Amino acid sequence: MATLRDVAARAGVSASAVSYILRGDTRFQTETVERVRAAARELGYTANLSARILKAGRNGVIGVAVYALEAAQPMRLAAAITREAGERGLRVIVQETANSREGELQALERTTSQFCDGLIFSPAKVSAEEIKSHIGTKPMVWCEDFADEPLFDAVVTPSFEGARDAVRHLIAVGCRRIGILGIGAHEDARNKAVSDADGNSAFRAQRLRGALAALDEAGIEFEPDMAIACPWDFESGREAAHRLAARRTDDRLPVDGLFCLNDALAIGTARGFTDCGVRVPSDVAIIGFDGILEAAYTSPSISTVDIDYDDYARKALDLLVSRIERPSETTAPRRLVANYRLVQRESTAR
Amino acid sequence: MATLRDVAARAGVSASAVSYILRGDTRFQTETVERVRAAARELGYTANLSARILKAGRNGVIGVAVYALEAAQPMRLAAAITREAGERGLRVIVQETANSREGELQALERTTSQFCDGLIFSPAKVSAEEIKSHIGTKPMVWCEDFADEPLFDAVVTPSFEGARDAVRHLIAVGCRRIGILGIGAHEDARNKAVSDADGNSAFRAQRLRGALAALDEAGIEFEPDMAIACPWDFESGREAAHRLAARRTDDRLPVDGLFCLNDALAIGTARGFTDCGVRVPSDVAIIGFDGILEAAYTSPSISTVDIDYDDYARKALDLLVSRIERPSETTAPRRLVANYRLVQRESTAR
DNA sequence: TTGTATGCGTTATCAG
DNA sequence: CTGATAACGCATACAA
């Protein structure tokens, strides 16, 4: 690979001149500028980003750390960030944290952060204080931080509002026995006291709270055992549906409406009900959360709270870029909320 | 962030001693080793990977460049590579090329390659010669290179064999009028002459060839207009189904079996048929290709050729790591084929 | 067994 | 306007 010096030699100038000129410094003679540009083009020169960040602490690369590469929601966000960053002349690299403490620390202090000007990160196992001590001075935007006194800039999904609207929608189409699928194992819906023992799962809690608020305002009594804890994947949804179907009495399910805390759960649940001869939406209406693409192509298609990830990405990059460009500024952490809209599909059409 | 020198100062030794000791050199006194390790731990020292690759050309990071972050198949591969690399003590960063020449060149000569010991890449628009000239000496494994004289090590999916088995399966369940969905715009199924004008889409061509081979061996005449060109996404599948349904005569579709060149197409197609009152599998059987998770949770669930991406990842890393570890060795490019198995689900159950 | 010197490719400072 | 030169953090040959 051609280096700065190779270009300098070919153009007959110094390496520093090449560095300046290629980065757009205007104080050189047009003739010199031309010669250098030509030499760079001919050699196929590209600046080495590792050297650049080592020296300057900046290289135009943004890191994104996600909990899984095989989950639609985080990848939708990563894709939106990549698109939006591209329009701003930034590049993006993505790393998986595998939902593990180990993986999160790796992303924080090694791969992603060391290659990048800043980091967009949604930690699940690592606390804010730990992050503070591991990330150094590198700017970070925290996805889904609902802490009362945030330590970092954050963008959050409207989990409370979205969940509330989802359950309102179930009520509006006639559901009265409403279940909630996918709460954390440590959340006690009975007392509406939601703990956070399962890592930084504050956004789960938010969704539960929003759902309960909608029931409350409609004067619907909530049966605590209608809130089911499980992980957020297809198979967990399917299994939950099987268990619910097994609880039928006189061919009647314990629920007539089900709010799934994410879309993967909703898709799995719909499939599980189909396995058992339960009809969606006539026997039970289902609504999910996220707006992943697949939810529009299942049968029945799944109603959902569609998060506007382009908006999310834009806000995350606004926050991050402002910190990168003004590192000295120490304004208080800000929190922005992404847009969303309720999408009604077949799973609640009745 | 603490540097080598910080650790050295704290431990009262030279920077080079720290470098040696932390990477496991054994020729130091146990007492010194202990002191250095302790100092590193106390300061939370982590080696800077940018500096390391700049100096040594090695940092234990593997780059993966995929055409889309929102597509299940490439992310399944990226996730498998991340898992497998983790077990070998390597880290992975992922970059999106957005299926564009620009994006592919970026990955090649900037982000991914400059941060990594090597690259796993599936180019669509850039030719092998271009890659050769842009990547320098960095090892690369090419995914899905079917060139006659490969320039790089490659891992490929068994596109020919998998497609052949898929169509054999359709035939086995009684299909006789078999359509193929998702061929490239420039492929002429009529002449079985498959061009490659649409970038490096050789694997599309392989799948088509495999399908035609299965028809051939069963003595089934192939109607050229039963091979439909379209992109590989949900919506294209849905639209294709609508168009096929519009061609019904006497309530009979022009096809009774459909091989979709990937699973997203298959899911979209199944949904599209449902829209039009076409029943799957009784009116038309559908089989996809890839084995993405979602295909097991739709209704009907979709039969598919399930590629073993763990095997794929293992083979890709074997190739890449061997090149990284022995850069001088100039053995000819190798090509490995991933395992696969046919998964029968509801969409072909008849 | 340990330390010193050098360089990877870049940017920034300073002198001319 | 341009060019030396010194870092950035690390690894390594070589000296001690």
Automatic annotation (TrEMBL), chains A, B:
Domain HTH lacI-type: 2-56
Gene3D superfamilies: 3.40.50.2300, lambda repressor-like DNA-binding domains
SMART domains: HTH_LACI
Keywords: DNA-binding, Transcription, Transcription regulation
Gene Ontology terms for molecular function: DNA-binding transcription factor activity; transcription cis-regulatory region binding
InterPro entries given in the database record: HTH_LacI, LacI/GalR-like_sensor, Lambda_DNA-bd_dom_sf, Peripla_BP_I
SUPFAM superfamilies for the chain: lambda repressor-like DNA-binding domains, Periplasmic binding protein-like I
Superkingdom of origin: Bacteria
CDD domains: HTH_LacI, PBP1_LacI_sugar_binding-like
Name by which UniProt lists this protein: LacI family DNA-binding transcriptional regulator
Taxonomic source organism: Bifidobacterium aerophilum
